[in-house]
User: Fold tRNA (guanine-N(1)-)-methyltransferase from Winogradskya consettensis.
Amino acid sequence: MRVDIISIFPDYFSPLDLSLIGKARGTGLLDLSVHDLRTWTSDVHRTVDDSPYGGGPGMVMRPEPWAAAFSAVASPSSLLVVPSPVGKPFTQADAAALAAQEHLVFACGRYEGIDQRVLDSAPMPVREVSLGDYVLFGGEVAVIVIMEAITRLLPGVLGNADSLTEESHSDGLLEAPVYTKPASWDGLDVPEVLRSGDHGKIARWRREQSLLRTATRRPDLFEAYPPEKIGKLDRAA
Ligand code: ADE
Assistant:
């Protein structure tokens, strides 16, 4: 997969050299480039913003550098992803959809946002996505989050693909609690069932915990879960 990130703070993206994203880049599974939007300015001050039409606080990103940046890095078959508090809430399903794309371009807005005409006239499809109902300084951290969610879904990135099917949000539910050694720690014991060796019983326990957690912590997800699936194990135990 190819990814181009455009930002006025390219240094924000140094974490993308680390850990499994860094490894995916090293092995060629992920071809990622970060660009400084100011490369595509043409004045001596390398201006990227101006005051908003209609008045109001803050500054808005001017359209010209963005248009020049898209001409340089994008094609009509790219997908433009713009993190923004006015975007559609980003979900695991969105991560999977983005992971299936060949080329993503991320546009990181700052200040009060990007001139709307940039999105309205972009020479490729556009997706505005929000990480949640709060406001960040800009899109940079959101892109790092989205890149983590996407990269771990790319074939070959995770050693054990089972971890993708058994994790929270893969089936619309939260994952059951997990434990490791020691079996007894600080007066607290690992649930007996997990030490029983009975895989059927363990699968049923995990399923119950998963339903219970989802119902109590995320009633919105529980409501959306197909009722006919409750009480059934999704896979043979
Ligand atoms: N940029 C600023 N706030 C944001 C949010 N909540 N989600 C995505 N991008 C943002």
